[in-house]
Design a protein that fits this description.
Layout lengths: L1 H38 L8 H34 L2 H7 L8 H38 L12 E3 L5 E9 L4 E11 L2 E14 L5 E12 L8 E12 L17 H6 L4 H27 L9 H26 L5 H4 L2 H18 L7 H26 L2
Antiparallel strand pairs: 1-2, 2-3, 3-4, 4-5, 5-6
Helix pairs in contact: 1-2, 1-4, 2-4, 2-6, 2-7, 4-6, 6-7, 6-9
């Protein structure tokens, strides 16, 4: 009991530190990415914080899986490095005794990963899709960032504004280049605002400006000044309806949806997350072995390679189901079964006391080297004595 409590405290401490580092790195990277998109006019600046939250929530299962894997392998590696495992094996204890405390520590994380994968992540993806669709269907003028040229959704207008006042409803020094069946026209104005006509339509109202119609130098070229000029801009209500992608559907809706390759691939992704978390924690127990006289950084590098390889192979199976090359029933279990067999093989390897890399064999080798060195030192001392 004392051993299990101490081990669980150490696992929780290492997991907390690992999660803090990974979470901070990911949030910082996401923040930089969305700030760049907001500066480029790809997302609304008012939506940045919400989109960061949805993105972090979407990738939180992966962060937790990697946290649990690193926590277990780092704790066991430290035990080997400090020779605690040598004492553990010399006391007649088996490596299998580590499975129970590791699972007691890890099962709450597995449950959290499952809850995020089946409930929170689809909701976050749905909200992200709603925010993105709402931004895409905003009025053309509201999508323009000051100091940047922006094309309209209908691709027949180019807008440019120098600055904005009173939020995003009124803009200053507006430039609009329009192309239609009658030709091209350029409108410049000191001020612009969007007004609704009460019937669902939206109009851009420009004040105190000038309009140029046609090509300069031709007889049909026209130039006129105006105090108030209205032009219709496209506007639609953002709705996420029947076109909702499979990864944004809730789990009950996904199960009730028609059986197709897209829904099966998404269901495979959600099921794989908690299974991967359990399998990697079990793999970390025999994988945490390290020579006490060698460094421990190689184990963490190997853990990273294993994690990314496992994740990429899971993606391969998911894409195979999405492309119709493999059925769901044949895709969800082979990879996890293979890794479990690798775990069983590593456990059998570490439990083989006669193996030269077993801790007891290493302890015997260290003792033999020490006795040989002491014997040589004693012989040299006797030869040098008068």
């Amino acid at each position: 009991m004392i051993f299990q409590r101490a081990l669980q405290r150490e696992l929780a401490s290492v997991a907390g530190a690992t999660f803090t580092v990974l979470f901070t790195i990911f949030v910082t990277w996401t923040l930089i990415s969305f700030l760049g998109k907001a500066a480029g006019g790809q997302v609304a600046s008012s939506d940045v914080l919400a989109l960061i939250g949805f993105t972090v929530l979407n990738y939180l299962p992966i962060i937790l899986i990697l946290t649990s894997f690193i926590a277990v392998i780092a704790t066991i590696t430290r035990s080997y490095r400090d020779s605690e495992m040598v004492v553990w094996f010399a006391s007649g204890q088996s490596l299998m005794r580590w499975v129970s405390p590791v699972l007691v520590f890890g099962l709450p994380l597995v449950a959290l990963v499952a809850a995020l994968s089946f409930i929170a992540t689809p909701w976050a993806k749905l909200k992200s899709a709603e925010f993105a669709e709402r931004f895409e269907k905003r009025e053309d003028l509201k999508r323009v960032s000051p100091g940047q040229f922006r094309e309209s959704t209908s691709a027949n207008r180019v807008f440019f504004v120098e600055g904005s006042t009173r939020g995003s409803t009124v803009v200053q020094n507006v430039f609009v280049n329009s192309v239609d069946a009658s030709g091209s026209s350029i409108v410049v104005a000191k001020e612009g605002v969007i007004e609704a006509d009460g019937k669902g339509g939206q109009y851009l109202v420009l004040k105190n400006g000038r309009r140029y119609l046609g090509q300069p130098g031709r007889a049909d070229f026209q130039s006129m000044e105006f105090e108030r000029y209205r032009m219709r801009v496209s506007s639609q209500v953002p709705v996420v309806g029947s076109g909702t992608p499979a990864d944004a559907l809730s789990t009950p809706a996904l199960l009730a949806a028609p059986n197709n390759r897209f829904t099966n691939a998404e269901l495979l992704y959600r099921i794989s997350a908690p299974i991967t978390c359990v399998v990697l924690m079990l793999l970390a127990i025999p994988l945490g072995f390290v020579n006490p006289r060698a460094g421990s950084s190689a184990n963490l590098i190997l853990a990273g390679l294993i994690f990314f390889t496992y994740s990429n192979l899971s993606k391969v199976f998911e894409n195979s189901v999405k492309q119709g090359k493999m059925s769901f029933g044949m895709a969800w279990w082979p990879l996890h079964l293979f890794v479990l067999l690798v775990v069983a093989g590593l456990f059998a390897w570490r439990l083989n006391v006669n193996h030269r890399w077993h801790p007891l064999a290493l302890l015997g080798a260290f003792k033999r080297r020490r006795l040989l060195r002491d014997a040589r030192s004693a012989g040299a001392t006797q030869e040098g004595a008068p």
